[in-house]
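Thread: S-adenosylmethionine complex, take 2
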Amino acid sequence: MTTEASLAYVEQFQSEDDHLRTARQHAETVGVVPVLPGARAALSFLAGAAGAKSVAEIGTGTGVSGLALLRGMLPDGVLTSVDLEAENQRLARQVFLSAGISPTRFRLITGSALDVLPRLNDGGYDLVFCDGDKVEYGEYLDEALRLTRAGGFVVFDNALWHDRVADPSQRDPETLAIRELVERVRADEDLSALLLPLGDGLLVLQKPH
Ligand SMILES: C[S@@+](CC[C@H](N)C(=O)[O-])C[C@H]1O[C@@H](n2cnc3c(N)ncnc32)[C@H](O)[C@@H]1O
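Output below.
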């Protein structure tokens, strides 16, 4: 079994530069919780492995996951990221620009995910990353499967939700929604999926070819 010490070792395996540190400081200031370092590294890796030219993100926050995705994608790849909060996106934009990312490589859309996602193109994305409202995760899966190209990836953060998903006595709305999502993905024989104990848990699935 993996011990707490090993999980902590995994999180420390990848170092973070000043731009990621600044994004994390902004997150603390505005009160959002960014992906932890293990999950952040996995996002870069997956965007690279997918040869991603086009990625959609739900939950820009202050740009930790967005910068990871932009760094993993092809050099001309474009990130489309949705968030309810314009202030969070203003800080994410600052982080991307100071990290040397061209403004042509990201499109930040302010709005509610369930209003914005239906306007995005079917099959137009190599990877869709979901990190918005946990209660909406089931609806994000429906939208993400529509948006992702065949063979592309859909990734959810907080799939273990602070150890609550694995504990059946925890029945708050966020935990129930995430547990339902994980069970739905597990039961779907068409989806190849991984539940990774990185950060707060990363659920990765591949849309069938
Ligand atoms: C956990 S934070 C995202 C952190 C970011 N992915 C990162 O790692 O840097 C969640 C974000 O989702 C946004 N959010 C919450 N509910 C939303 C919704 N229904 N539609 C769009 N964004 C939402 C919040 O404003 C917040 O910025």
